[in-house]
Amino acid sequence: MSRDSQKSSFKFDPKLGVRSHLDHLSFSYDEGVFGPQPELRRLDQIRRSLRDPMCDGPDPVYSIVMDVGRREHTDELAQRMLLFGVVVYAAGQLGEEPVRSQGHIHAVAPHCGWSTPELFEIWEGRAIIYAQESAGDDPGRCFAVTAGPGDKVVVPPGWAHAVINADPNTRMMFGAWCDRQYGFVYDAIRAHHGLAWFPILEGKQEDGQQKIHWEPNPSYRSSDLSLRGPRAYPDLGLDPSTPIYEQFANDPNSVQWVSEPARVESVWPDFEM
Question: What whole-number distance in Å separates Cα of residue 87 and Cα of residue 65?
């Protein structure tokens, strides 16, 4: 079994008490934990950003709950303009592509005047966080970060991004810190018929996993794609060994840069995912 296979099957405890049931894309919450009913993203909602908009695939594609947490933190989260979300993706594929989101840019949050960053943590399965500097004709720098349970990935302010289920044989789940005044902007991505690179599934390898290769979207100018694994983020003060909700619980200031990116303004211009 490969290292990626071992990590994708690893049981990770996010230490929050939000659970998704294996047989469907629903959620339940432990005592003392709050959260909403899930929103389901249907295949028809993301077709315009797929390489093959007429493809078949799982429907719903994924399920999302925004604003979850421990009840003891309700006031602290509101005061700090922080929001925690959890998403679970279906297994399967969308035509030749793995199950994925359509991609978006974060709207500018009125309270801080920034298109805010996002901090992801993979809980189950294997994910790829794809991000590009711009959704204009020139996408700028493009990154695809493959991550497994417990890995953390940061998308910097203003970048267009999408999350991909890297293993069509199993579902994928992640948690993320977001800004409380979050909003999603899709127009520029839809105008380009998707992001600058499409993930395409190939045949199965010896370990049973399907390899992914990347094909450029001709609606953009030519660009390079950097493929990499997750890294630590000492520049943002993250502890790689502590779940991201637990980091907030231990020290709320540790993730305050998510809703106040100006706190680490010098980090963003040359940021490496």
Answer: 6
Phi, then psi, of 73 in degrees rounded to 5: -100, 5
CATH number attached to the domain at 3-260: 2.60.120.10
Task: Report how far Cα 92 is from the mean position of its chain's Cα atoms.
Answer: 18
Distance of CA 202 to the CA centre of its chain: 23
Pairwise CA distance, residues 200 & 16, whole Å: 34
Q: How many residues are recorded in the chain? A: 273
Rounded to a whole number of angstroms, the CA Rg of the chain reads 18
CA dihedral 85, 29, 101, 145 (to 10 degrees): 70
For 193, how many CA atoms within 13 A lie in the half-sphere containing its CB?
10
* CA pair distance 61, 154, nearest whole angstrom: 23
The domain ranges of the chain are 3-260
Separation between Cα atoms, residue 16 and residue 245, nearest integer Å: 7
Whole-angstrom distance, CA of residue 174 vs CA of residue 88: 7
* pLDDT surpasses 80 at 8: no
Amino acid at 24: H
Place of tokens 């992914």: 212
Do the beta carbons of residue 162 and residue 192 sit within 8 Å? no
Identify the three-state secondary structure at position 265.
helix
21-40 per-position pLDDT tens digit:
877 899 999 999 999 999 99
Q: Quick: pLDDT tens for 185-227.
A: 999 999 999 999 999 999 765 566 789 999 999 999 999 999 9
